[in-house]
């Protein structure tokens, strides 16, 4: 808040406003426009006696007749004309503050946003988001923090970010979210280290070592339960919390890794990895965009959510 705004607030006397009803001032302005009690009553959707009573209260409040009968109808006094000139812009400002949504102009904005997401989501999604931000809002800055499905809501509650993108096992009542994408898993490997031709078979899948991304350090995931139901077991020999390490690992080791399908497609495009559908029914994940309910009507964040949602719908080139 600026010093001038504080200075204006300090000049406001609560006592002066006790006898003033905002609706009374609205009635005054309508009377000034219509120059008629009956027409003002029609505009305000109230009875003529109510408008007449309001005019009597206005005359008492301002100690002036305000509107007097003349040959052509009601004529304003000099005091009424001065009041109209001062009150009309003031009430227009009040109306705008109460009922008009704040606008966000991305082209001229200089705002910084803080987002949080797992590293694989950043790899898959943010290149398109950032490119669109550069196009629409060249002076907007973005900070991306790492999170996972178990930390996102807590980070949001601690105000460590404004917008998150992740899977959400828990949704507190204050959290708002919309689904961005639903996808299964694919299996990736490096063709030179592990030359597997044709569709990946279940036999191949369990015959080779696996690298697993797990946020809690486990050597098992939902895929292992699906394998066990078939009497099979895979060899998970390495776990990490970061998807971004996998391409380098797979260039050096003859191993497989099961990753979200969108990330597998991205790596097949730009990391020289081979991607295959899983040779068993794939578990699915739902990726959501989420934010605090207190930010529901933030126009800048609404705009950013639209950019992120559109990027998630845009296929990889």
Helices, strands, pairings?
Elements: H1 3-10, H2 14-17, H3 22-34, H4 37-44, H5 48-62, E1 67-70, E2 73-76, H6 78-99, E3 112-117, H7 119-136, E4 141-146, H8 152-157, E5 163-166, E6 175-183, E7 185-190, H9 202-207, E8 209-213, H10 222-228, E9 235-240, H11 246-252, E10 257-260, H12 261-270, E11 273-277, E12 285-292, H13 299-313
Parallel strand pairs: 3-4, 3-5, 8-9
Antiparallel strand pairs: 1-2, 5-12, 6-12, 7-10, 7-11
Helix pairs in contact: 3-4, 3-5, 3-6, 4-5, 7-13
Q: What portion of residues belong to β-strands?
A: 15-25%
Distance between the termini: 46 Å
Number of H/I helices: 13
| Shape assignment | rod-shaped
Tell me the total number of β-strands. Answer: 12
Protein name: LysR family transcriptional regulator
Domain HTH lysR-type: 20-77
Family: Belongs to the LysR transcriptional regulatory family.
Organism: Chromobacterium subtsugae
Description:
Helices cover 44% and strands 21% of the residues. With 317 residues, the protein is of the alpha/beta class. This is LysR family transcriptional regulator.
Short overview:
With 317 residues, the protein is of the alpha/beta class. The protein is built from 13 helices and twelve strands. The strands form four sheets. It has a five-stranded mixed β-sheet. Strands 10-7-11 form a three-stranded antiparallel β-sheet. Strands 1-2 form a two-stranded antiparallel ribbon.
């Amino acid at each position: 808040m600026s010093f001038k705004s504080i200075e204006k607030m300090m000049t406001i006397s609560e006592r002066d406003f006790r006898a003033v009803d905002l609706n009374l001032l609205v009635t005054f302005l309508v009377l000034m426009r219509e120059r008629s009690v009956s027409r003002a009553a029609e505009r305000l959707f109230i009875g003529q006696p109510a408008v007449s009573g309001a005019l009597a209260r206005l005359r008492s409040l301002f100690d002036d007749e305000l509107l007097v009968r003349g040959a052509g109808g009601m004529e304003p006094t000099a005091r009424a004309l001065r009041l109209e000139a001062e009150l009309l812009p003031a009430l227009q400002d009040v109306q705008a503050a109460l009922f008009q949504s704040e606008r966000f102009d991305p082209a001229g904005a200089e705002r910084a946003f803080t987002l949080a997401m797992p590293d694989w989501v950043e790899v898959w999604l943010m290149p398109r988001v950032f490119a669109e931000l550069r196009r629409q809002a060249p002076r907007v800055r973005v900070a991306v923090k790492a999170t996972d499905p178990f930390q996102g809501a807590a980070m949001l509650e601690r105000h460590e970010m404004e917008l998150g993108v992740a899977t959400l096992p828990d949704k507190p009542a204050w959290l708002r979210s919309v689904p961005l994408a639903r996808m299964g898993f694919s299996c990736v490997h490096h063709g030179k280290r592990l030359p597997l031709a044709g569709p990946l078979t279940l036999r191949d899948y369990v015959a080779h070592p696996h690298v697993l991304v797990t946020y809690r350090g486990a050597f098992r995931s939902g895929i292992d339960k699906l394998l066990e139901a078939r009497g099979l077991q895979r060899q998970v020999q390495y776990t990490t919390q970061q998807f971004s390490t996998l391409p380098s690992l797979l260039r050096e080791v003859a191993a497989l890794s099961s990753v979200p399908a969108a990330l597998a497609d991205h790596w097949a495009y730009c990391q020289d990895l081979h991607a295959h559908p899983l040779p068993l029914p794939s578990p699915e994940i739902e990726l959501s965009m989420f934010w605090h309910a207190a930010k529901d009507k933030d126009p800048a964040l609404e705009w950013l959510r639209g950019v992120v949602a559109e990027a998630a719908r845009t296929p990889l080139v």
